[in-house]
Specification:
heterodimer, A: alpha+beta, Aldehyde Oxidoreductase, domain 3, four-stranded mixed sheet, four-stranded antiparallel sheet, 4 helices, 8 strands, 31% helix, globular, B: alpha+beta, Ubiquitin-like (UB roll), 3 helices
Amino acid sequence: MTTAILVRVQTADVDVGAELARLEVLGGGGVASFTGVVRGGGGLQALELEHHPGMTEAMMTRIAEEAAARWPLLGVTAIHRHGRMLPGQRIVLVAAASPHRAAALEATSFLIDWLKTRAPFWKKEHFADGTSRWVEARAEDDAAAARWDDPESLSEMIPGKRSGEQIER
Amino acid sequence: MAIELLYFARVREAIGRSAETVSPPHGVTTIATLIDWLAERGGGYAEAFADRGRIRAAIGDSFVTPESPIGDAREIALFPPVTGG
């Protein structure tokens, strides 16, 4: 099955309807998606996303290709924003189209889990009182991503796990 | 040989710049020894690399480990664990 892969990194908002419509016309079955949205509360005024421009698209493409290798997918879309975002605004969209819903749903879950732990983005929170702080990586995110680990897969994509080696955390 | 270093997020802020070109001495052969050499500069460098367990690295567009050889890498990025998505 040929998989149409679309990867973008941008400052502009994501038109979720248009992106899902693009996947819907690939032959049907089903389209599953996950949209990440800036979480409000706690005095958060804005979220700033920094990324490694030379590496981000390459990693996102490899993750999308890995999803296409694992599930029968007609299309994979991964769009991640960078720059400054306000609570309620979209950060990321991942979506997958497949003849079968299980493949679309599982691939979508895989895409966001791996994107969170392998795509080189960093979040900084800015608060109403003028303070700011870098978001810390969460062990739960590593655990979620590890669900999909496969020793036969692209181990060089996994930070700190190349050749079975471990980085101390 | 000259290597372009890129710093991101907390590492960038501690060092006070986002990129620089360095020519490490012969003993610097791996990511870990590169970080040791940079940390010896003190100040923001020592602060940036104080907790080695919270530093990740990439050569070009691929993640590497502390033991990875620098080889003939032209561009090396040093940064905290990623927090996108």
